[in-house]
Amino acid sequence: MWRKALLAAVCLCLRWAALGAEGKNNFEGIESKFSLRTPAEPDEDVCYLVPGQVNSLARCNFNHTSKTFVVIHGWTVTGMYESWVPKLVDALYKREPDSNVIVVDWLVRAQEHYPVSAAYTRLVGKDVATFIDWMEEEFNYPLNKLHLLGYSLGAHAAGIAGNLTKKKVNRITGLDPAGPTFEYADEVTRLSPDDAEFVDVLHTYTRGSPDRSIGIQKPVGHIDIYPNGGGFQPGCNLGEALRLIAEKGLGDVDQLVKCSHERSIHLFIDSLLNEEKPSMAYRCNTKEAFEKGLCLSCRKNRCNNLGYKVNRVRTKRNTKMYLKTRAQMPYKVFHYQVKIHFFGKTNMTKTNQPFLISLYGTLDESENIGFTLPEVSSNKTFSFLIYTEVDIGDLLMVKLQWEKDTFFSWSDWWTPFTFDIQRIRMKSGETQKKVVFCSRDGTSRLSKGEEAAIFVKCSEQPANRKRGGTKKASKENSAHESA
Length: 483
Hints:
Belongs to the AB hydrolase superfamily. Lipase family. The protein is 28% helix and 27% strand. The chain is α/β, with parallel strands linked by helices. Strand 18 (423-428) and strand 19 (434-439) form a beta hairpin. Helix 5 (114-139) packs parallel to helix 6 (153-164).
């Protein structure tokens, strides 16, 4: 079976060479179809734009003065559109009512064995490029109004299209571009920053070794955003999938099966529908540094909106960004860096310790946010990231509790584990505000399995001589933020 697939891929390479010798405006070889969807029927292909047939644009009521979105699907087992296609079309029209939303139909090629369909992205990209060149040359349609959105294999087809057009398209959004056969591919055969004036990418399923990961792991755009580290998305475990099936039926079962991979699409849809609640991503060298809360800076374009209203920042190298999200739409959360110095009369180190932190603010409160510190040691400062789904406004008070281990330990019974804490320093990623909280008693004792320690906003900032650790941490933050 795989030999046949590889043989077919070789045959495609020969076709590429033959097509390369032809003129770009030879429309006879185009197999992809270009469906102009409508707001009234986002799930139906009611009218096709046909390259070379001028009257097809008038027949389909193409708007020559508005933006155009070109949606390119990915590999399909069923040979049918997946449930996300009409949802994305509908969201695009809700955000841009006068726009044109075109869905590229390459379903026949997309339902082959994966290596064959992956090889077909070259021909699909050529079809799309020929269509775009025809629109620009025949109707003088400005390419600065053109936005390509490609999912999985469709992201690479969009990149190839952008590479082949005579003039650069405005923007390409890669929605978890496919990994297998593309992780080590040349830039001309996959999505890359050179394929459009601006290329932004969402990576949502990059688990496993390179080239075996469903989504491509390496950055391939001007801005590459890795929600939740890019490996696995909240709400995509089996239990959550079964619960959603029980609640909503089997209508979205295809999305549940590929939950993390398709989360890229739904994050973008969220950015279209919830304009007032944009999710914020932060530049960071590694996801490990992000998990420590070291990258919540917005200085010099270090933070950006995820999705449709991303700020177009072009740098000499790829910019990697991270954020946390909720399990369901709207996906926005609020990020906080927490820094605590643990005092102790005796040297003590504990690993993988569970804590609960509660935040109280001017608008709301968020209680018992669970987190685990890989290590807690006497007389050391630790930084970590927490996030909440609730907009609590300006912080007023913090409670910190050290939980008991889930298993019984004789050492916990005989040895009281206790730290002293004077202050908790916090920074909000969304507002960039820094707040220092002090113990009501000057020093709070935090004991494992005991009551929470309470901290309130300090009446004044601590003296400079006590802030040396903060200055050192600030330098470390800057180093991690510089991508």
